[in-house]
## 1
Amino acid sequence: MMINIAKIIIEKLKYRFLVKIISLLLAVGLWFYVNEQRKPEKYITVPLKLQNIPHETAIASPFKNLILLKVKGNETLIQTLSARDFKATADLNGTSLGKNDVHVKVQYIKGKMKFKIAKVDPHVVEIHLDEMARREVPVSATIINSPAEGYLKTGEKIFPEYITLKGAKSLLETIDVARTKSIDIDGVTGSIYKEVEFDMPNDFVIPVDYKTAKVNIKIVKNYKAQVFKEIKIDVIKLQDNLKVKNIDDLVGEIKVYGPPARLKMLENENKFLYIDALDIKNEGRFDKPVQAKLPLRCTAVYINPSKIDIEIEEK
């Protein structure tokens, strides 16, 4: 009887001891978990580099080339970390044509790591490989905007006229021309020469033999001459107590050289010829020069008559 009671007491003690051990382990685990969650954290974006791309293959489509790291540790330490402290790589050794899921490897390159990399996103990248190919295509200059008013782009010369591109076969099949980066000719008043890089549609197709194109753009004056007849000659700055007696006889002709758009403006006007009467103080006849008020970039080739006789009388 006494032996049975002792056994029961021992079993109860063992059970309680086991419960306490389990409770202690749970408490310790919870403590570590809570402290881990409370640790300062920082997110860092690191560029991904591909390694060991198989011979005569090429990247055929865009991939996730920026890796987001979540690091945890001492606040002072992790605040000093930057992308320069890490290297993210994807090793393509053993991959084949088509779709490949490649694991991302992240390394801390500044020595012993005294913090934790809690997350790598993504930790696997999808890489599409295709056969490496070459293709010769013509070169085209990308020219934007227009030269100054009155000027005309008459053409351009490009060197080289053709270049060889290298990249995935499937990508090269979609490219018929190699375009340059934009050349802005806004407001230009003469021919220009530019050396510009090529504007590739993506990072996976590259020019082989030339890295830049030399572009000579010819821009010339687009002016013309136009004759305007039967233009009324206005008399300006005449004193209020005086008037022009022969006002109906004041008619002239002018030949103007300038941009076509400006000449078009003059067609709708009939008072751009004038006589300055500021120095006339009394009645009489005066031989005065005829002048023209013309738009910007326009000049008078001739004015007929260049002088005209006006008769002034009091009102």
Note: The chain has a mean pLDDT of 88.
## 2
Amino acid sequence: MRKCPFCSELIQSDAILCKHCKKDVPKEKTAYDLMKEKEEKYLATLSDEGKKKYFKEKRTENIIKILSILFIAGFFISLAYDFSWEFTAVFTGLIGLYFLVKYLFKKHKEKSFGIRFANATSKYKANKKRYLIRTGVVVGALLIISGALTTNSMLKKQKQEMITNYPVPKIEVLSSKDPQGKADKYLLKLKVTDTENLTISHGDTVEKNLSGKSDIVEQEILLLTPKTDISIDAKNIYKTSHESILIERDKNSQELAKEEEEKKNSQIFLIEFDISDKETQISRKQEYIKSFNIPSDEYTRINNLYFAKGNLTLNKDDFAIQVWQKDISQLRSEVNNLKYKLKALK
């Protein structure tokens, strides 16, 4: 209820026509409307420079308010993640101190602190509902963010602790690892604990799903080669274990024959390579004799073998020819022996 400005009779707050004097009643102004009018009147008294300064200060205040909210949010986040919160708290305090100092010492026409406080109180009352909604939204959002981050951090810690304390799969080989003689099959026997998935690799791969407690596993393995490497991997949800064993057996007749054949082929290759090399040396020395051109390295060899010992009876050129002919004869003899061995192998 309110009074009619014309007849002073009580009328409804939202009435636009007085039921008593039948006059149009202007809409009742709220405290916020009054504050707006007051601000407009104050702006009307300012020069253009004064208005610019006023709006600049207002923008600065809005920016600092936003920064304050961000720093408060950072404070809650730092608490949620167990970070050091002193940095955020100091900055939040500095921003609060900035507002306090600015409020106490800013120069308006109202020099009295009481007037400024009354104006601030009036502004709050005029916009109380809006301020409460804004504050509730901001605080609610911060609490939701903080709660979500705190919950997430706690879940991560719990999961990490669970992973750390989770048992490691254990593999125990119960079957013998000794050589298997002529047997071409091997029965692998394992005892595995805390394992949910077991993989056995030995050329082929075998996977087994287990109970996760204590299990006895048997797997027959075909020994395709004299040495068989068996790889065993045990896994559970978080951890893995590995074991590797080598099982040997005697070579069978086919493998022995193949080994002998490979050895024989290797010897044949080496002999053929040696024959080719010696025949190349013979051909080169024969060319030396025909051209009678002594290479420097060959002359050095002859000099070290004969001239240095004082065995020189002919001139150097004739003696070199004799040495080469002797080398050729010796190389031919070696080639013949190698060809005989090669023939015997084939």
Note: Residues 253-291 form the longest helix (39 residues).
